[in-house]
Amino acid sequence: TTEAGVWGKRAAWVRLAGSSEGKPIEIMIMNHPSSVNFPTYWHARGYGLFAANPLGQSVFEAGRGMENPKPFNFVIKTGEPALFKFRLIIHEGGLNADQIEAAFNEYSN
């Protein structure tokens, strides 16, 4: 919860909850375990930014006060693939953590 609680942390999924036209709405982003640098680092700001950043490891570690942040030097070699796989769920109403975890398990399998 809160920007400070999300920014630069790693997790398989995150959820943003709010309301639209008086109705509860949630946006969830799930990072697939086969993705580069899973689980991803999350980037959130109070002005509405809500994003995944699997490549910003050293910036997030430094920003969270970690000693000796480790760079993630990722290079895509010519002709080789890189997988950045995410699922976006927009849901009217509320899902509890167990329901979200079940949706993530279904996605990751």
Structural write-up:
The chain has 109 residues and is of the alpha+beta class. Helices cover 21% and strands 28% of the residues. Strand 1 (13-20) and strand 2 form a beta hairpin. The longest helix is centred in the C-terminal third of the chain and has 12 residues, at 97-108. The model has no long low-confidence stretch (mean pLDDT 90).
The ordered string of helix (H) and strand (E) elements is HEEEEHEH
Q: Strand content of the residues, in percent?
A: 25-35%
User: What about the largest sheet?
Assistant: 3 strands, antiparallel
Shape summary: globular
Count, helices? 3
Q: Strand order, main sheet: write it out.
A: 1-2-5
* Mean model confidence by pLDDT: 90
- Can you tell me the residue ranges where pLDDT is under 50 for at least 5 consecutive residues? none
Number of strands: 5
Class by alpha and beta content: alpha+beta
The assembly state of the depicted protein chains is single chain
Distance between the termini: 27 Å
User: Helicity range of the residues?
Assistant: 10-25%
Estimated radius of gyration:
15 Å
Question: Which key terms come to mind for this protein?
Answer:
109 residues; 3-stranded antiparallel β-sheet
Draw up the topology in text:
Elements: H1 3-6, E1 13-20, E2 23-31, E3 42-44, E4 50-52, H2 57-63, E5 86-92, H3 97-108
Antiparallel strand pairs: 1-2, 2-5, 3-4
In short:
With 109 residues, the chain is α+β, with helices and mostly antiparallel strands. The chain contains three helices and five strands, in the order H-E-E-E-E-H-E-H.
